Please model this.
Amino acid sequence: MVGRLVECVPNISEGRRRDVIDAVVGAVRLTPGARVLNVQSDESHNRSVITFAGEGEAVAQAALALVERAVELIDLRDHRGEHPRVGAVDVIPFVPLGETAIEECVGLARRLGEQIWATLRLPVYLYAAAAAAAHRVRLPDIRKGEFEGLAEKMLQDGWAPDFGDPHPHPSAGAVVVGARYPLIAYNINLQTTDVMIARAVARAVRESSGGLAHVQAMGVTAASGLAQVTINILDASKTPMARVFDLVRVEANRHGVEVAESEVVGLVPLDAIVDAARAHLRMHGFDRGQILEFRLLE
Amino acid sequence: MVGRLVECVPNISEGRRRDVIDAVVGAVRLTPGARVLNVQSDESHNRSVITFAGEGEAVAQAALALVERAVELIDLRDHRGEHPRVGAVDVIPFVPLGETAIEECVGLARRLGEQIWATLRLPVYLYAAAAAAAHRVRLPDIRKGEFEGLAEKMLQDGWAPDFGDPHPHPSAGAVVVGARYPLIAYNINLQTTDVMIARAVARAVRESSGGLAHVQAMGVTAASGLAQVTINILDASKTPMARVFDLVRVEANRHGVEVAESEVVGLVPLDAIVDAARAHLRMHGFDRGQILEFRLLE
Model:
């Protein structure tokens, strides 16, 4: 249904200034063959997630145009937000859709990384399926120390960038580029303003500290003032959203706290929504082929 | 997305003999312009739900062909099943999709009713939006007494058929034809073999005995031997599946019984699935525009 398309989901370090966000997204819109599917800005994270898609080459060209505008307009030296980041553009994942192979996305990531350094003098780390070493696969490991710690980190053993000199760009830091399967960016707000509870819940549910496989999580404060568990589900076909939600609820309940609500950031595959409905309704045999709109499109 | 289409969802009184079901569905497949979307047979109900769609006239023609085959192959005098029925074809609803108006479906129902009597000498009741009187709107009211009580019922005040003489067809009984908005046919199986509990739960959750608006329900025994609450949700945009499921669970719990699982019979609109996911995940702000596959299709 979606052909040989590539999705690209850059996260930029600006979630408040509407004109800056519009200008950066505009660079994508002006690239022929790239279609913006979603833009979602979070004020407290001070970060926007831009989703666009198209054929590989068009998508890579749009990504380069986006980085150019972001480097011009976003200065990390003034940037404050709840979400960790290493640069004006924090991360650029290429995601295979439909029949597209992950290898095609790895190739796009490497070529884009080369171009970003060549044209903008912005150092680039490769991550996920495009990573050059095992210790550089996970985004949280690359991000650790953030923009503020980058100059020091780049000189450490094993942490030189994949493209560029080991010195951060003065205002734009560095950028992490890679290829990965679709992930779900998912926030769960707790009925409390105590961020320590969100942090404890995040530790309990994420893979790295003994929680659920394919789950990354941290505790932050949402724009509403509520404590938030902000989550990436790296493979929702194995670890469904409902399981993550249910465990967050149980862990929050240990602290006497309820879940207020949850939200998907950006887009989500249909199967993730079907899985959540199936979980609630115990509808074990349900098949997405039973959705009227899909039968009509076939 | 779906243009001026009409959906038709005949329920035939055969859920066991595969050759008969195939022959009846085949009559639809052979009609140009009618597309079969789904066939779902239930052995314990001894009933199949066939869903097809197309432009109004093609769909009506396919429905007539289906009734012809069903009358030929299904004899109600030998028919036993858990689900009430008045004939070889129990009910034929026409459902407007996309931009289609309900009035168009009412017109199709009336013309089909006329033709069924004229060509097959099978008496027809009109129901739902096509009903000729208020007491004949609800399907359960028309069905009351079933095939076995039909000869007597047809002679009662207010219960003559809309088309045809007030005498059932000897083997095929009568058929109920009408127009309605999309409904969800939904079964919830309980973790018990005691059908009395399913009946008590059905009474508690259905509109007619003080339960949820837009909900019809009855208690039967499923093919697995489990007690089942079999439900029609007439307007899932007002009474979502998750609310029905949750209330069935609470009512079953009063009897010390859990819900084993649930199933949608036939097709379900995407919004119903999104609503169920939203309910479980408390994802109040989620919009179906965030589903990747839909953004790509726009």
